[in-house]
Design goal:
449 residues; alpha+beta; Globin-like; Four Helix Bundle (Hemerythrin (Met), subunit A); Alpha-Beta Plaits; 5-stranded mixed beta sheet; 16 helices; 8% strand
């Protein structure tokens, strides 16, 4: 690793070389205008469009013969200056190589080739420092690319408005990335951000966590998430200290470790976002039951399971009796409470292997497996009876009771697998239940032979 103490040793500057540089001071002072003019002419020829190629004092540091900490700091500042000008790593390398060529030309012409050799070695240090600076920039660009890909995925998921994600959660992830951008900017030579939040409680992510975000983090990941978050902040502080001390090789080490810890933080946050996307895409926002499109996906799975275990499949379609009257007389808020309570009753009435779905409006669907032909009708009757005995909206002034009508069909999955046909038959039985007085179950068992 490049260190300040090893610079002179690497360049190979001895007392005789330093003496020669001292004796050649006038030569380098006189050379400066010509050197910069030639370098600017070369830059213009190759369309660099740079008004000032060197920061103040950089030329003098190069020809000083004293390559200690001050030179190293100036070299780092020079490289970050080139980066902030928008120069690529390749163009920066070409500038350094052109400087080397020009110094060799002028020192050789004056009979001082050894001086050109020493300056060339100093420019090798410039190349090494430049590589470190652009490595930091590359890390930041990679971080940006991943961030843009993640945000694009989130935007696509929510494009049509049917997917709802916590703005606070997404904001916590975005703020975490923006926090790192501020850190990288400082590491690349920006003026130190006096308000930069080094504490885990002061950053936006920390504030989100303390405001209830911790409750969202899975219990088995809280410890590792907290450790990673603290490591991110600790390594960020170290990176800035190295930046202030102009130690780019140490900055890379700190930032690399920080990014690894940050990956854990981002992984958990993106996992929570993905879960919300999936939840919003597959579950009804009111009742927390799977939507009809999930029924379509899981129907085939239920048939396959039934075939393997030689079971019959039951389908129940049910809806709330006179639900329009509830909405008209009590209001839609009460209607929503009725549907939420009904969803609870349905979930509590089913076995783990049974499936219940929000079909639409006040309609629900249940899929069940069993060995007998009457299992599905018995389940439907149990649901009907439980609903009839349940008090709805019991914590409000609109305490009430409702009933449901159910249509069921039971069939052998080896004989038929048409989802449309099964739904049509169950819906027809629901129609009969309505026609025959409501608050009842009508069933059909298909020929199993």
């Amino acid at each position: 690793m490049l260190t300040i103490s090893s610079i002179n040793q690497m360049i190979g500057v001895d007392d005789e070389d330093r003496t020669q540089f001292e004796l050649s001071r006038a030569f380098f002072i006189e050379l400066k205008p010509l050197f910069l003019a030639e370098l600017n002419g070369w830059l213009n020829e190759y369309d660099y469009q740079i008004e000032q190629v060197f920061i103040d004092g950089y030329y003098d540091a190069l020809v000083s013969g004293h390559y200690s900490q001050e030179f190293y700091i100036r070299q780092y500042t020079q490289c970050t200056y080139w980066y902030k000008l928008g120069l690529s790593s390749v163009r920066t390398t070409l500038i350094i190589n052109q400087c080397r060529h020009m110094f060799f030309k002028h020192t050789s012409k004056s009979g001082k080739p050894q001086l050109g050799y020493v300056i060339s070695q100093a420019l090798d240090i410039a190349q090494a420092v430049s590589a470190n600076v652009y490595a930091i920039a590359g890390m930041m660009e990679k971080m940006h690319q991943k961030f843009r890909a993640d945000i694009t995925g989130i935007e696509r998921a929510t494009k049509f408005g049917s997917i709802k994600i916590s703005e606070e959660l997404v904001g916590a992830y975005i703020d975490h990335v923006n926090w790192k951008v501020r850190l990288f900017s400082m590491a690349l030579g920006s003026v130190e951000d006096e308000e930069f939040p080094y504490s885990t409680d002061e950053c936006s992510l920390g504030k989100w966590l303390n405001a209830g975000g911790w409750d969202k983090i899975p219990a088995d990941q809280k410890e590792s998430f907290d450790l990673a978050h603290r490591q991110v902040h600790s390594l960020a502080r170290q990176a800035i200290q190295d930046s202030i001390a102009q130690h780019p090789e140490n900055i890379i080490k700190s930032l690399s470790k920080m990014e690894k810890a940050s990956d854990k933080v981002a992984e958990v946050l993106l996992q929570l976002i993905d879960e919300q996307i999936i939840h919003s895409a597959t579950l009804d926002g009111l009742t927390e039951l799977p939507l009809r499109k999930v029924f379509d996906e899981e129907y085939g799975q239920m048939l396959s399971l039934a075939r393997r275990q030689h079971l019959r499949v039951g389908l129940i379609i049910l809806d709330v009796d006179h639900f329009k009257k509830v909405n008209d007389e009590k209001g839609h808020l009460v209607g929503d409470q009725v549907l939420k309570k009904l969803a609870e009753v349905l979930k509590n009435s089913l076995r783990q292997e049974d499936k219940v779905y929000r079909w639409g409006g006040e309609e629900f669907a249940v899929m069940t497996l069993g060995e007998g032909d009457n299992n599905v009708s018995a389940l439907a009757e149990r649901i009907r009876s439980t609903v009839e005995q349940t008090i709805f909206c019991e914590n409000t002034d609109d305490e009430m009771r409702v009933t449901v009508s159910c249509g069921t069909v039971c069939f052998n999955p080896l004989k038929t697998n048409s989802i449309d046909k099964m739904f049509s038959l169950a819906d027809k039985q629901l129609y009969f239940a309505k026609q025959n007085g409501r608050n009842r179950v009508e069933s059909q068992t298909l020929d199993m032979e």
